[in-house]
Write a structure and sequence with these properties.
Shape of chain A: globular
Number of helices of chain B: 11
Oligomer: heterodimer
Structural class of chain A: alpha/beta
CATH class of the largest domain in chain A: Alpha Beta
Largest interface: A-B, 37 and 38 residues
CATH topology of the largest domain in chain A: Rossmann fold
Distance between the termini of chain A: 70 Å
Strand content of chain A: 15-25%
Number of domains of chain B: 1
Radius of gyration of chain B: 19 Å
Strand order of the largest sheet of chain B: 1-2
Helix content of chain B: over 70%
Number of strands of chain B: 2
Strand content of chain B: under 5%
CATH topology of chain B: ABC transporter involved in vitamin B12 uptake, BtuC
Order of helices and strands of chain A: HEHEHEHEEHEHEHEHEHEHHHEEEEE
Largest sheet of chain B: 2 strands, antiparallel
Shape of chain B: globular
Radius of gyration of chain A: 23 Å
CATH superfamily of the largest domain in chain A: Response regulator
Number of domains of chain A: 2
Strand order of the largest sheet of chain A: 7-6-8-9-10-14-15
Largest sheet of chain A: 7 strands, mixed
Chain lengths: 390, 294
């Protein structure tokens, strides 16, 4: 047995050595090429940098990964065309699993040419990948990780996505004011860090605002029948339903709720905020209130041109995840420019310095922990469209 | 509320029962736990979505198409994943189980590729027909699901106990060699069983699509595991047991949410199954056989 195992391993080891030596050879080659170029024309004086991307490309949430990588690629194209930095993306799939995200991160970190990481997609994944990246001293930035405590993992961990702790209270406050709500029911997915932390924020906000919480119901990822929970909620007659769910489950929940005659507004977290909700739930999606950093219909030339370019490239309109990823790479590029070279520590310091960077999401700054400073917009779905909620 | 919750529970339970019927049929005859059954069920649901939402065809066409497609899938499952392993020397009795797991992974990823990630809505006018009794809204689909599950169970019991093919099937289940010696075309019977079981999975798929308006490539897995729990609860290979087990699981899950804590839904439901099995290891309707002592 052991002999049988050993042989392929030896072969593999030899193969890896060959690959490795090829890699390092390639690396030194580009380095020598660069030097004269630096002194020559400034067009080729672009800072070359490889950025690792860990994204949720296969599995139930593959739509997130698709949007994120699309946004990144679009930004990469524009940034490289600008000529100041030359970014190469190394994209790895995490499949939404912690273990796979970690092994993808290790693969990226072992490549010394890679200067920083964008991703992973889920907060659950960031909780295992973040500490590892921090330990290895490579800056990592989540573009969609909104659970509490992500930038606090370490000094190398950043995010450019508005945390639920900021977004949810904003939307609940506006909804309560508008509908004069006093009693709420809460519904959340209890098998996901993201929806769980969204629920914690909802519960805290509701308590702080003195709302009466009628019931707290849970569900699991991939469930298809929510009738039992919804029937219970219906019998309690709430003014508002706070639902911490990802769009996939959330849209189905709204569909079933409207079908059984629950017509009060829903307030959702960040994962609920996707045009997919309208596609899946149709008319039933009307009355969903979410706070978002990204509003595609905003009357802003930057947003409009991003929409056009994205649609031309991918034949559909961008969502929040694409937009955050797009801005995320711009933030990275800005940090690279300011750092002056592709060095992990210098990029980390440059990231912290970023202030009021104009992106498609708005004016962006990091606080001293690497968390977002930004104002969310509150939206509501009306007549099958996201509209600004006043 | 209690009436509404009972209706919810019966709807869910009936769906579980139809899924479990397909499971139990294959187990009863072949002694194989068909892990691909949940994915075949999911394929049936997707065919329903394509026929009604995408192509706008009437619901009966969707049923027909789902039955045909899942029957073909069942045939291919038997032909390529089970038959090559049957009666060969040195094949472990676990091999068919593993090969069906392989098929389930394949089907899940194929559907992911074909239909895309995420939930697909099941838009059909038929799914929206409802009537009001007091404050309770009952959907025609909910009644239909219950009726179909009962009909399927009765038809299956009748077919197994009264018809010639059913008798041949039971003979095959009892002993493959003896049955073939007595002139039963066991090869045909086995194919027939897997095909019927798969077609039932397809029917269940469409019903779930209509009732819950949510179809996604991952729905097969949890449904498959619950179906498995139900046939163990009801007694392996027992048709009435599958029905009763399905209703028990569906009702208990719903009532736990209604009067307890939804966070403990699966926990309490499965603890109940464990307790029932401790008291009746052969399952609710299972018979003690000489083999049971193994």
């Amino acid at each position: 047995m052991s002999k049988l195992v050993k042989k392929p391993f030896l072969l593999l080891a030899v193969l890896m050595l060959v690959v490795l030596s090829a890699c390092s050879g390639g690396g030194s080659e580009t380095a020598t090429e660069e030097k004269p170029a630096d002194e020559g024309g400034q067009a080729s004086g672009a800072i070359k940098a490889k950025i690792g991307v860990i994204s949720y490309i296969t599995g139930p949430g593959a739509a997130y990964g698709e949007a994120i990588t699309n946004g990144l690629k679009l930004a990469q194209k524009e940034i490289n065309a600008e000529g100041k930095v030359d970014i190469e993306l190394v994209i790895e799939d995490s499949a939404g699993e912690q273990e796979q995200a970690l092994s993808a991160a290790q693969k990226i970190m072992s490549d010394d040419d890679i200067v920083s990481i964008i991703g992973p997609t889920l907060s659950t994944e960031m909780n295992v990948v973040g500490p590892e990246a921090d330990l290895n001293g490579i800056p990592i930035m989540g573009t969609s990780t909104t659970a509490e405590g992500i930038p606090q993992i370490g000094e190398y961990v950043f995010r450019n996505s508005i945390p639920e702790a900021l977004a949810i209270p904003a939307s609940i406050k506006k909804a309560v004011e508008k509908y004069d709500a006093k009693k709420v029911a809460i519904l959340y997915g209890n098998d996901d860090v993201f929806t769980k932390s969204g629920f914690d924020t909802m519960e805290k906000t509701a308590k702080d605002m003195g709302l009466e919480i009628l019931t707290i119901e849970t569900f699991q990822k991939g469930q298809s029948d929510y009738n039992a929970q919804l029937t219970k909620i219906k019998s309690l007659n709430p003014d508002l339903i706070l639902a911490s769910a990802l769009y996939n489950e959330g849209a189905v929940i709204m569909g079933q709720a409207r079908k059984m005659g629950i017509d009060v507004p829903f307030v959702g977290g960040n994962g609920f905020n996707s045009p997919q909700v309208i596609e899946i739930a149709g008319e039933a999606a009307n009355g969903l209130i979410v706070a978002t950093p990204w509003f595609g219909e905003k009357d802003d030339p930057k947003v409009k041109s991003f929409n056009e370019k994205y649609e031309a490239e991918y034949k559909k309109l961008p969502d929040q995840f694409a937009a955050q990823a797009y801005d995320g790479l711009y933030i990275m590029a800005e940090a690279l420019k300011n750092a002056g070279e592709a060095d992990r520590d210098k990029v980390k310091d440059a990231l912290l310095e970023i202030k009021d960077l104009e992106g498609i999401l708005g004016k962006f700054s990091f606080d001293e922990e690497g968390d977002v400073v930004m104002d969310p917009t509150v939206l509501i779905i009306e007549d099958g469209q996201f509209k600004q909620f006043e | 509320m209690i009436l509404e919750q009972l209706i919810n529970g019966i709807t869910l339970g009936s769906i579980y029962a139809i899924v479990a019927l397909g499971f139990t049929l294959v187990f009863g005859v072949l002694g194989i736990i068909n892990m691909a059954h949940g994915e075949i069920f999911m394929f049936g649901a997707f065919i329903g979505v394509i026929m009604t939402s995408t192509l706008g065809l009437p619901i009966w066409v969707a049923f027909l198409a789902a039955i045909i497609v899942t029957a073909i899938l069942g045939y291919m499952l038997e032909r390529f994943a089970l038959r090559p392993l049957r009666g060969k020397q040195g094949v472990s009795h676990l091999a068919p189980l593993i090969s069906t797991i392989g098929v389930s992974i394949l089907l899940e990823n194929v559907s992911h590729h074909l239909f895309g990630a995420g939930n697909h809505p099941f838009r059909n006018a038929f799914a929206d027909i409802s009537f009001q009794i007091g404050s309770i809204t009952i959907y025609l689909v909910q009644i239909l699901i219950f009726v179909i599950s009962i009909l399927l169970m009765m038809a299956l019991s009748y077919w197994l106990s009264k018809t010639k093919a059913g008798k041949a099937l039971r003979a095959t289940a009892e002993n493959l060699e003896t049955a073939s010696l007595l002139g039963v075309n066991t090869k045909k019977i086995i194919v027939l069983t897997v095909v019927i079981a798969s077609a039932m999975g397809g029917i269940a798929g469409i019903l779930v699509g209509m009732a819950f308006n949510s179809v996604n490539p991952q729905m097969g897995l949890s449904m498959g595991l619950k179906g498995l729990a139900i046939i163990i609860l009801g007694g392996m290979g027992n048709v009435k047991g599958a029905m009763a087990g399905g209703l028990i699981l569906g009702l208990s899950e719903t009532l736990i949410v209604a009067y307890g804590d939804s966070g403990y839904r699966d926990a309490i439901a499965f603890i109940a199954i464990i307790i029932i099995l401790m008291l009746r290891p052969q399952g609710l309707f299972g018979q003690k056989t000489t083999e049971a002592g193994r």
